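FYI - complex with adenosine-5'-triphosphate, inputs then prediction.
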Amino acid sequence: MGCGQSKAVKITRSRVSIQQRFSSSSLELLLPTSFVGDISKWYSFGPTLGYGHYGTVRMARSIYHPEEQFAVKTVSFKRLGTTLESIRREIAILFSLDHPNIVRLFEVYEEPKYFHLVTEYCSGGELFDKLVSSGHYHEAEAASLLRKVLGAVAYLHSRGVCHRDLKPENFMFESGELKLIDFGLAAKIEERSIEELHSQVGTAFYVAPEVLKGAYTFKCDLWSVGIMLYLMITGVAPFPGKESEELLNAISMFKLDQNAEVLSRASPLVRDLLAQLLSRNPDDRPTALQALNHPWFNSQPAHEHHLDPVVLFSLKRFRATSRLKAAALNFIARRMTVRKMQGLASTFSAMDTSSNGTIEVEELKAALESAGFTLTKEEIEEIMLNVDLEGTGQIKYTDFLAATLASKSMLSDETIRKTFTIFDTANSGFITRSSLIEAMLRTGRQLTEDESAGIIAEADVFNEGKISLAAFKQVLRQTC
Ligand code: ATP
Ligand code: MG
């Protein structure tokens, strides 16, 4: 049955969630349990950007560097009810993610009645609003957006995270990049575990039929991507009805009619991909990586990205000579806005040809060769060792940014000074063991006293027992 696909149903903002009950699926809490701090010491608040179920999102500026804008999601304990588990889960998951198409969580502040999540500010608005204002997308444009959506989803799933609330309201733009936000309903499942999720969560309009039955896996996210693609291509909703029994019934019964009038101008390939994503049986639905390999993507003209030899050269030269340098570069890289990156985000995506969100040895080799660097196996392995500081065998997004930011002259005196003030939490003119612990805690890493002392000692070029701005500059500029 066609389920009313020939009827043009207007897209409406779909904020009503179905039953919000959280499963206690195995989540390793990667975080210290509390982050105490007074956010007003560091940020001043501007206009409200949006409202959610549990709180408000406001624009904020750094007090010390007012040119830097952030989005702060403030969640009130009262609204959360008796359990703080859901917000802790959102924080833990967001801190563990590192991908060009996923919003960055910078810091968290806990106050007696609120949690404040300081995230990257997405100035370009929601994909939802773009969709509503443009009606629908040309297939080439839809393919370029969907590639990013699926890249983010493939990355999440490979890290054991199921988002469970994918919808155009939760994708935002920043300087042309698409960013997935709102991990309030995300769940972490052990990798390769066949454990099924049981809580019926999500936004009614985008929710997969098996979620309504109460037993599902990662594949539920692919259904939501299918609904998003349908909206992008047709500009209308696939279901009649509002958020009600009628809608939920329509979802449970849905079968895509590839010959529906509303799809008459869509190419056969996109119709095939839609039919696969909107398979009622999740086993017939492709994974995100399989969907990325659908021939529809190759049939669409893609924007060619030429790899910049200067960036690749700096990757080749990179050495993190001390842990403080590594931590500082990582910090700068994590906070770098897309606007300041001057194309580094798209260089990373272009090098990640398998779209799994990391760069493997083979991908690094291919990129270097395309830029004219012919290296031996040992030389390539050495670059991997220098850039991949945790020794995982893969270059993560932030590692890549940290290793290449010098090539774009982003390591200016001003940037170094700003970073110093963040590590000098007591504003004493020095980075000390305790200020280092405090600064790292705010970014989700807990250092022991011994670790902190070791890091300071390693970078203590002037033998002061603490790090002055001059010493910090020297450490950051050391090349070997
Ligand atoms: P819900 O679950 O109801 O969707 P929520 O409480 O989880 O909401 P978010 O979805 O994270 O909250 O944010 C609510 C709205 O705030 C978004 O739809 C968006 O319009 C705005 N917003 C959120 N994050 C950002 C950001 N980083 N930059 C700009 N605006 C944002
Ligand atoms: Mg949202």
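The chain has three domains: 35-120, 126-299, 309-476. The first helix runs from residue 77 to 80.
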